[in-house]
Amino acid sequence: MSDIINNLNLTLKEIEKAHKVSNFAKSITPKLIAVSKKQEDYKILEALNSGQRYFGENRVQEAEKRWASKISKFKTLEIRLIGPLQTNKVKQALKFFDIIETIDREKLAKEIAKNFNKNVKTKSFYIQVNTGNENQKSGIDPLQSDEFIKYCKEDLKLPIVGLMCIPPSNEEPSMHFALLRKIAERNNLKELSMGMSNDFIEAIKFGATSVRVGSAIFGQRV
Hints:
This protein is α/β, with parallel strands linked by helices. It is 41% helix and 16% strand. The two termini are 22 Å apart.
């Protein structure tokens, strides 16, 4: 058995174990989103052949190049955009991704709404919240999040289903996961994409419905 398959199985077991002892044990077990960005293709194929079907990508063109030939072969694939989206790539992204997790500003939300219709592939969206207010990171200021969520849902009529965050690397992630959950609860959003290779178990304690794991499965990116 390859390292990839072993790593996948171990990660899935850790997710299940953390979920069972959490306050959210009666909810559905969090999805494992395998972060495939910049990974070698043979590693992705090993994950696919082992049954993994949820993947996260950072760039539109890179994702298209990697997945175009695989989508027809693996029918139940779900590909998520988990990286920043430029407004000039919106049409392309809507035709390709099942879920876009990174609505992070009004200009982008407007462009998505302008191009969103029943014929696009993307059926649901997450809003990215910059829980640490870091200048170098994308995301809505937590203090503006309620207003922005309402704007996206009510004014733009976008199917916003959840929130996503990337906590600061030098801070305890639990307070950021707790904050994201509070924002989701008061806005009646059910999905929480939070937790990566080094903190996904902590994220599950705070109700993550999906975790984004790359290096723990595939090793460091090339």
